[in-house]
Amino acid sequence: MTSISEDSDKEKVRSVSVDLNNDASLVIDIPDALCERDKVKFTIHIKTTLSSFQKSEFSVPRQHEDFIWLHDTIVETEEYAGLIIPPAPPKPDFEGPREKMHKLGEGESSMTKEEYAKMKQELEAEYLAVFKKTVQVHEVFLQRLSSHPMFRKDRNFQIFLEYDQDLTVRRKNAKEMFGGFFKNMVKSADEVLISGVKEVDEFFEQEKIFLLDYSSKIKDATAKAEKMTRSHKNVADDYNHISGAMNSIAADNNTAFKKTISVCVLQKLEDRVASDQELKLTELLRYYTRDIQAAKDLLYRRARALADYENSNKTLDKARLKGKDIAQAEENQKQCLRKFDKLSESGKKELTSFKARRVVAFRKNLIEMTELEIKHAKNSMSLLQGSIEILNSN
Amino acid sequence: MLLMECVLHLYVSTVELSLDSPLNDRKKKDAVKPSLSAPAASVASSSSKAPSKTLEELEEEESEDKFDLNISVTNPEKVGDGMNAYMAYKVSTQTSLTMFRSKTFTVRRRFSDFLGLYEKLSEKHSQNGYIVPPPPEKSILGMTKVKVGKEDPSSAEFVERRRAALERYLQRVVSHPSLLQDPDVREFLEKEELPRAVSTQALSGAGFLKMLNKATDAVSKMTIKMNEQDVWFDEKIQDVENEEQHMRKLHVMVESLVNHRKELSGNTAVFAKSVAMLGSSEDNTALSRALSQLAEVEDRIEQLHQEQASNDFFTFSELLADYIRLLGAVKGCFDQRMKAWQRWQDAENMLQKKREAEAKLLWANKPDKLQQAKDEIAEWEAKVTQYEREFERISATVRKEVIRFDKEKARDFKRQIVKYLESLLNSQQQLIKYWEAFLPEAKAIA
């Protein structure tokens, strides 16, 4: 079982998006989390001045599946069709560290005590990194909801925050699960739809072109960033092993050789760089890949509404020709138009603010990443300079 | 350096032989009188030096005596075509030592010439307990690529790797005080044309290892219950074994580092392109520019990684590879000493048998065969004395060699590790420059 506790560093490491907690009327954060075998239990901490809540400050434990349930109910709420729905946090993935843990257990007998201790340490650090990441994305999800004027009022959101019992029963609603599945199937049909629909609004035409292009580019960048970060981690791991081996040599040796070897500070160098790079850059790209998808979903819904509207027009024409069910057809057409207009209006607002949000988030993360890179390089430099001095003075 | 040799030879010939502790040895050396039966003609001019110096003092003198000899191996050039082609290297020497004909000179040598040199040196000196530096390994695959004329980065890398290894090899040979005196070394450096070394087949990497292993096996097959009077040797061989193990492990790890760093370099380049694409797709102007700048930074970082991988390899990995081979040679010395001991023991046994035979003859009262028996006893007594003396000599040589080797190893590693750390330092400095240049771009996003 691993848990993380408060530390000031976390503040910086958090929001991939911008500071979403600047509205004091509803402040949410995840100060703590427990990892029990497969399940992660997040402790959600809420501080609010809103009267819709019973208490002004409270905490509640939630699982990843609860977040997914919340996301899905929001997605399926017709009312929110014109909004960009914050992407669901991905499932906590401890597969990597778990595999390593397994290998460690198997290879225990063939390692020295030092090697084992070192690998164990490495493993714990990896676990912690995955942990921090998953807390971050779950936290951001909730903060996106709480900072949005419409989502924060959502009934299910309130239940999620306040309901003091296990949400499992609510989740197991078969209809909801099936509904979600159905939604996904229709979505891919929509992707074909989007290229077929003729766009009347210049704004949305531009948005469509931009989002389609950007979406594939950011997916690619995310994948390449992940590969690069993994390589970096490999180099850091190698340095770890090398310094372990060098320490063994030094331990066995009694000559001047020993001093030379034991001064090597290689292990401290690449490690932090790899993990910070991962957190800032890769996470940023990953998050926005999902967010861009959410924006695209909005476009799809609007496109579907447009298609519905066009269909309703055709139906109305047919009805007028046949002279049957005209009133019904007219009513249908009016509704479709209303829906489409509503989606277009809120969609425009959402996409505009999304743009601004994205730019700000990139700026923040790129600055923080650069500052961290500089800090690490300076640390490494002083470590190296120290070692070189010691070696030269002997 | 040569003076030390003189003293050593004298010690061996005039002092009572026994495997004493080093402390006694030193005392005896002080008492030795310098009846200079001059060995080689080219003794250093300082022949008037009082020989009653201790071994340590002489060793120190040797290292302070910074002999001026610089060797470089450069300009690999392909000679000929097809499968008979080979690489010729320029071997340039710069020196103020009087034993050479001039102060600077250059010759052209090919790989088999280096192997030939090793073979000659090994033949002459290994059996006396000297650590003869092993040559770089043969590589059929590497050379075939070069012969076939593949002008790709991997064959360029191979040639560079070999050139550097050959240079290090020569530098090690000439930094060995006794080997430097060997006329074959001088000839290798000075002579215009060398006769083509033919029997270098046995000296491919695998062949060399096989040769070493055979020697080791042969020795271990003997019932070596050597009554080691001097624990120094026991401890030392154990140290050497341990060290070789550690270095092999370390070498594997460093090779992994080299590969991962190359991977990182490749992935960084790919990422840079991807970021550039993303930047061009971005509709916010400032962010778009920042992303292209980021792509450029990553491109430069990729270069850094490449250079660092090369450093990882040449400064660190090759150092370890060299020393793994050298430690093999050190083990070889110990084996030679074992063989010498065995020879001595066998002679002792034979002498014993002859004495028993003589006793039997006396008992059986066969006077005619007695003279022959006495002759044989004398013969074997002489052999015993000779072999014992040789064993003493080889023991002293091995000890001296190992001490020198340890010192040089410490120096070598220190120098290389400092160099390696300095290269890392340089990388970090560059990184800071690149990121500090990028920071205002990131801040300019609006």
TrEMBL record, chain A:
Question: Does the keyword Coiled coil feature in the UniProt annotation?
Answer: no
**PX domain: residues covered:** 1-167
Q: Which UniProt keywords apply?
A: Protein transport, Transport
Its GO CC terms are: cytosol; endosome
Q: Which Pfam families match?
A: PX, Vps5
Q: Does the keyword Cell cycle apply?
A: no
InterPro entries in the record: AH/BAR_dom_sf, PX_dom, PX_dom_sf, SNX5/SNX6/SNX32, Vps5_C
Q: Which GO terms describe its biological process?
A: pinocytosis; protein transport; retrograde transport, endosome to Golgi
Q: Sorted alphabetically, which PANTHER family does this protein's record hold?
A: SORTING NEXIN FAMILY MEMBER, SORTING NEXIN-5
Q: What is this protein called?
A: Sorting nexin
From TrEMBL, chain B:
Annotated coiled-coil positions are 370-397
Task: Identify the Pfam families for this entry.
Answer: PX (PF00787), Vps5 (PF09325)
SMART domains this protein is in?
PX
Protein's membrane topology: Peripheral membrane protein
Where in the cell does this protein reside? Cell projection, Lamellipodium; Early endosome membrane; Golgi apparatus, trans-Golgi network membrane
What residues does the PX domain cover?
67-196
PROSITE patterns in alphabetical order = PX
Q: Which UniProt keywords apply?
A: Acetylation, Cell projection, Coiled coil, Endosome, Golgi apparatus, Membrane, Phosphoprotein, Protein transport, Transport
Single biological process term from Gene Ontology? protein transport
Low complexity: compositionally biased ranges: 33-53
Sorted alphabetically, the Gene Ontology cellular component annotations on this record are:
cytosol; early endosome membrane; Golgi apparatus; lamellipodium
> GO molecular-function annotation terms?
phosphatidylinositol binding
- Disordered: annotated span: 28-66
* Membership in a protein family: Belongs to the sorting nexin family.
The record's annotation in PANTHER family points to: SORTING NEXIN, SORTING NEXIN-1
The molecule here is called Sorting nexin-1
Species name for this entry?
Cyprinus carpio (Common carp)
